[in-house]
Amino acid sequence: MxxxxxxxxxxxxxxVGLQGYVTVxxxxxxxxxxxxxxxxxxxxxxxxxxxxxxxxxxxx
Length: 60
Known about the structure:
Layout: E1 20-26, E2 31-37, H1 42-52
Antiparallel strand pairs: 1-2
């Protein structure tokens, strides 16, 4: 069909998307953090905040 558009809403119930956790490990310090993974990219902002706060630089 010419001019047809998708009939599913990418944020609707039909498309669950990726769900789970992203685990980041800094090998030199063995510091591990988990970030929830979902439809949005919120984990990236949390990871960036941790990097800026030097969370991966020194063991707790």
